[in-house]
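Batch manifest, entry 17 of 40.
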Amino acid sequence: IEARVGDEEQISFSFPQPRRSGLKVITLKNIHHAYGDNVVYRGMNFQAERGQRIVLVGPNGAGKSTLLKLLAGILAAQSGARVLGHNVKAGYYSQNRVDTLRTELTVLEEALDTPQRVTEQFVRTVLGCFLFRGDDVFKKVSVLSGGEKSRLALVKLLLDPPNLILMDEPTTHLDIPSIDALAVALDQYEGTLIFISHDVYFIRALANHVVRVSGGQLTHYPGDYQYYLDKTSAVSERAGLTSDGRDGVSPSQTSLRGRAINQTGAAASRPSQDRREQKRLEAEQRQTRSRERKAQKQVVNRLEREIAELEARQAELTAELEKPETYEESGAAQQINRELTDVMESLKRLTAEWDQAASTLAKVETS
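Output type: structure tokens
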């Protein structure tokens, strides 16, 4: 991910990319949740797919933050199921969720405490983009304000991004250049993003799918924020954020019941077969599907191992390019850059193969 901050201060840096997830990232099935007698959701279903950047809109108190917490797994529904997809790691950010920060560390020490291989200079650059500048990085976490702690938690999330990011009002404690940096960074993020925001600029910069939450119901609009405004005939951009009105245009939906009826009808129209022969054929089909599933899973696992090895090598080469001594040896930087280019091309090719293999596996598993 690359981001630039403001017109006065042009800073460019790259965040690590998350590991690739399966096509179906997260699913909520038949969720029921209430606060006492106040029922928020009854029989609610939700699904996000890889690469979607979903903004949740709707009236205050409609359940947007509750939905985000249910997706994050920090709030357990009274009934229903939360299912994470293949290889999915979720990360949740809220301006009030700072309990994971260690108060005895400095801002810089806490930011450097990441599984990713990053240099101190890189981390200080990122901290600067989010308003920790100069001696601010040496402050103890214990003396930070609530807003400062929120910004630090946001930096830590970006330095080690999961492939599913859930964000509740991430721009609250940021100035305009910092919001720009965050928007550009998330726009180039290759994972899945689900967020709540009242910042129209931020929404327009990121969202490619809108979900309106109102009256315990979720209405999907498979397009950007302008598409949503057009479909709902909202009187203004901000009115669109809190509207609970219903438009006459039905959003894209899939009727599983209708599909099941069609399939049942088609099956009934076929000539009946001998019961024993039917059982034999069904057993053969199950065995065939099992073999296909096993073979395809092996392909996916092999590609994931190869991609992981290349990603590790990419990190090593990038770290070498950040060392001053690399440029002291004649031709060393050029050689590293050539290898890095080869690695990135191989990663692109393998990622495309993995995408196809994972899609095929998903079809086999649901057939």
